Amino acid sequence: MRLLPVNDNISIFEILNLRSEWEDLARNFIEVDQNGTIDSLQDFVKNGMRKNRFRPGFDRATELANIILEKV
């Protein structure tokens, strides 16, 4: 698992890989749209903590969502 700094330049393929990893993690979360769209990522960052903050992978999923949103 590679952690990317937010100001690192990354390709569209790396963003798609990050999105795929986020979708895999989000499958285990409650009330989260796992489509990986910009809207679902924004909603997850804003509201995902309410019911999911103690679920495994939540911190990584939040990190991934923030990286993706910063890059698009």
Number of domains: 1
Low-confidence stretches: none
Order of secondary-structure elements: HHHH
- Give me the Rg, rounded: 11 Å
Distance between the termini: 21 Å
Question: How many strands in all?
Answer: 0
Helix/strand-derived category reads mainly alpha
Principal-axis shape equals globular
Range of strand content: under 5%
Q: How much is the average pLDDT?
A: 87
The number of helical elements comes to 4
Give a short account of the largest sheet. none
**Helical residue percent band:** 55-70%
Map the helices and strands.
Blueprint: H1 12-26, H2 38-47, H3 49-52, H4 58-71
Describe this structure in words.
With 72 residues, the chain is mainly α. It has one domain (12-71). The chain is 60% helix and 0% strand. The protein has helices at residues 12-26, 38-47, 49-52, 58-71. Helix 2 packs across helix 4. The relative contact order is 0.20. The mean pLDDT is 87.
Give the gist of this structure.
The mean pLDDT is 87. This protein has one domain. It has 72 residues and is mainly α.
Keyword list:
0% strand, 4 helices, globular, 72 residues, mainly alpha
